[in-house]
Amino acid sequence: GIQVEQSPPDLILQEGANSTLRCNFSDSVNNLQWFHQNPWGQLINLFYIPSGTKQNGRLSATTVATERYSLLYISSSQTTDSGVYFCAVVIVGGSYIPTFGRGTSLIVHP
Amino acid sequence: DSGVTQTPKHLITATGQRVTLRCSPRSGDLSVYWYQQSLDQGLQFLIQYYNGEERAKGNILERFSAQQFPDLHSELNLSSLELGDSALYFCASSKDTGELFFGEGSRLTVL
Q1: Which residues of A touch B (CB under 8 A)?
Q2: Is the pLDDT of residue A30 over 90?
Q3: Which helix (H) or strand (E) covers residue A73, if one does?
Q4: How many CA atoms lie less than 13 Å away from B86 in the CB half-sphere?
Q5: How far is A43 from chain B (nearest CA, A)?
Q6: Of A30, A45, A103, Cβ closest to residue B42
Q7: Using alpha carbons only, what angle is made at residue A99 by residues A93 and A102, rounded to the nearest 5 degrees?
């Protein structure tokens, strides 16, 4: 099956710092999403981005489908950015079931 | 608010018992997915329904079952519960594009 690898597994930042989270996948994808799981366990949609670049406030994402990776950029991080960031992919010609990476755990200190 | 509603939010029960988790998808979404997230684990796909029919199965135990009703809400039934079944159970829904929207989850604790 498809392999989805996220890096780094853990990240600790000081408030105001910038960071880049990476998601590598082993096959061509139809869909790719980024989610933020906050400390209360809620999964929040960040981006639906099978290709290209999108921005939403301090967050932006880029997917380079031909090279099988996606990046999530967090600028001027805030303590509320803490939590776990997941990417999920749906592969071309596959089961259409989103497969999740194991996530990047982010802690932002004040 | 994602538009996906899950109940109950929290549930505490004993080993050997049976529970039912309920999910109402977003308006217009025909697909419903169930995922399990155990402590410090990723999201494991359990099962998917599309317009009332089972479409895909993941690593769902035989003690677990699910269904999707004509009004498109879905229920996940967990029986003969074991300590290891304690987890967050998420429901998600999507339209044909496959973009997932998650409910807030049902946190199950088995004592």
Answers
A1: 30-31, 33, 35, 41-45, 48, 86, 88, 90, 95-103
A2: no
A3: strand A69-74
A4: 11
A5: 6
A6: A103
A7: 150
Work out the burial of residue A17: count CB atoms within 10 Å of its CB; fewer than 13 is exposed, 13-18 middle, 19 or more buried.
middle
- pLDDT by residue for chain B (111 residues), tens digit each? 889 999 999 999 999 999 999 999 999 999 999 999 998 778 999 999 999 999 999 989 999 999 999 999 999 999 999 999 999 999 999 987 678 999 999 999 999
**pLDDT at B39 (0 to 100):** 82
Nearest to A30 among B48, B98, B105 (CB): B98
Contacts of A102 in chain B (CB under 8 A): 42
Residue written as tokens 């290209």? A52
Q: Using CB atoms, pick whichever of A31, A45, A102 lies closest to residue B42.
A: A102
Dihedrals φ, ψ of B42, to 5°? -80, -170
Judge contact between B91 and B102, C-beta under 8 A. yes
pLDDT of residue B97: 65
